Amino acid sequence: MYLDKIDDVDVAIAGLAHEFAQTAAAHDAAASFPFDNIARLRDVGAPGFVVPKEFGGRGFGLARAEAVVNRIARGEPSTALVLTQQYLFHATMLRSAAYPPTLRERIFHTAVGDGALINNLRVEPELGTPARGGLPATLARRTPQGWSLSGHKTFATGCPALAWHAIFARTDEPQPRVGIFVVPAGAPGLRIEESWRHLGMRASASHDVILEDVNIPEDHAAELVLAEHASGPDAFQAAWLSVLFSTVYDGVARVARDWFVGFLRDRRPANLGAPLASLPRMQEALGAIDAALYVSRALLDQHVERVDRGDTPAQQDSYYLKHAVTANALKAVSKALEVSGNPGLSQVNPLERHYRDILCARVHSPQDDSILVGGGRQALTAAGALSAN
């Protein structure tokens, strides 16, 4: 199905979110990956929404990508997380001159034509996230035809549905380089180890990916730099990362809020003789939830508008946005859980699932401690209280 107008996209995505919500609890309970959701996203071309128009995509900027992810997250957040990884990689690749043109074109064309998904696999058992420094243990060795990769990646969100695995690895050269090595799904030597046993985002299939002498062509390597020159995301990448990851959890918080409103409307304790909605304490709780979510929406809207008009905020500002929006999401759902009491904790109702999913917001890099330490250090350096070195 090709959606000609933005309004058509909005209607289709809202419909899919409603559809996904019908099976979200079952996927959570079984920790099963929502393959049907991915197929439905492909039906409307969602995997290619950020792909530039010259490659057949929709050319969405950050504002449109954020709106799609937020809406899908209200239906089933693990599905939204898979889309987030897709859009982040496409946006990064679009701006980077370090990707061979043939590789870039193939990834873009397959996203549009086949709905092919990609994720950047960086985390390892020993290293943890490379955002905190250190060299990956995953090794890329030179071969006459290109590269051979061996290593172990963890938290590979959506890996059963990926067409491409973008592996962060180091070379075996005397002076190691680090970079991205794009491995097609099904390549000999690549296997998935079903290790995902988490409290939240249980449907994300964020399993381990094991590589044992996996061969890829030379032009499937990109962004290779000497290890000592490797750097983190630039301001543009930080903005996309911060907005899309945080809006997943903002979407979860909003659907939790809507459940809470229904609970207050429908719950009529016998000793009260009226709905819980009539109690000032409940009205205050909902006001606190809505205040937190209002601030988050204002921050997200301002941020995406600046990025799309070319006035990208500083990297640290984007990280502050991530910190604030995810904290507000957790605050909102925690308040609903606190006030609703036992019904909120019951697996009969979705609020406890939303709360478990929201907890996962804390683990996406950069994590809160890194954001706040980095911001404090930056401010103190600017004030002359710390050396720039």
Automatic annotation (TrEMBL):
Q: What is this protein called?
A: Acyl-CoA dehydrogenase type 2 domain protein
- Residues in Acyl-CoA dehydrogenase/oxidase N-terminal domain copies: 17-87
Locate the Acyl-CoA oxidase/dehydrogenase middle domain: which residues?
Answer: 124-214
Species annotation = Methylocella silvestris (strain DSM 15510 / CIP 108128 / LMG 27833 / NCIMB 13906 / BL2)
Protein keywords: Flavoprotein, Oxidoreductase
Q: Which residues form the Acyl-CoA dehydrogenase C-terminal domain?
A: 245-365
A GO molecular function for this record? oxidoreductase activity, acting on the CH-CH group of donors
Q: Name one Pfam family in it.
A: Acyl-CoA_dh_2
What InterPro entries would the database entry show?
Acyl-CoA_DH_C (IPR013107), Acyl-CoA_Oxase/DH_mid-dom (IPR006091), Acyl-CoA_Oxase/DH_mid-dom_sf (IPR046373), AcylCo_DH-like_C (IPR036250), AcylCoA_DH/ox_N (IPR013786), AcylCoA_DH/ox_N_sf (IPR037069), AcylCoA_DH/oxidase_NM_dom_sf (IPR009100), Mito_Isobutyryl-CoADH (IPR052547)
